TrEMBL record:
Protein keywords: Plasmid
Protein name: Uncharacterized protein
Taxonomic lineage of the native organism: Bacteria, Thermotogati, Deinococcota, Deinococci, Deinococcales
Amino acid sequence: MIEVKCTWIPGTLDMLQLRAGNRHGRLSVHELRRRFGMGAMNSMYLIGRFQTLAEPGALTGLALS
């Protein structure tokens, strides 16, 4: 399992900074909802961040560096 954390990119309304383990990337709110569901969206809009544990397969196709 990999720890996944998302926070808003300042100055945007639909882009998130993604940290998965020690890798970083960007993610749209639409992609967040598709991969992690409405609970993730609720967390972003109500708390301003989202954190979960995910299988490595859930992160395939993301541009992480």
